[in-house]
Write a structure and sequence with these properties.
globular, 144 residues, mainly alpha
């Protein structure tokens, strides 16, 4: 474990690993998040936008944890995989979800249109990336 003063922010291999970890998390979060928003958009169930976005965040967290648990279960038993997925980077996942949904609400009012999805994904990727790098450098903790 490194002290905060000795962490180098220029390590390419750590940025690469942090990027891969963040992409896996983004995939998991996106499934639940986009699925929830799309469901309400298609079904046209009258529900407040803030409630839809909150539910999308919750579902994104759930699907991310499920995906991470599945990936980790190939390396460890299921109980350990779930525990690791729950404890690894919940802050990162929440930041990712909030960034994605904020972009969606600000740019198009909380609906999914094709052109906003790449912007949402970019925001969801870039927001937690420095934190994930920091965790790798300081604690040597990652989810994969």
């Amino acid at each position: 474990m490194q002290s905060e003063e000795s962490i180098s922010w220029t390590c390419r291999s750590t940025w690469k690993k942090a990027s891969v970890n963040t992409l896996w998390c983004l995939l998991g979060c996106s499934i639940g998040d986009f699925g929830t928003i799309l469901f309400f958009q298609i079904s046209q169930i009258p529900f407040p936008m803030l409630a839809i976005m909150s539910l999308a965040i919750l579902n994104g967290l759930i699907t991310s944890i499920m995906l991470e648990t599945f990936i980790l279960s190939r390396q460890m038993n299921l109980k350990e995989a779930f525990s690791t997925a729950m404890g690894m980077s919940f802050i990162s996942m929440i930041a990712m979800e909030i960034a994605m949904n904020t972009v969606d609400v600000v740019l198009v009012g909380g609906i999914l249109v094709w052109w906003v999805i790449p912007i949402m994904l970019l925001a969801g990727f870039l927001t937690p990336l420095p934190y994930n790098y920091y965790r790798l450098k300081k604690y040597d903790l990652s989810c994969h």
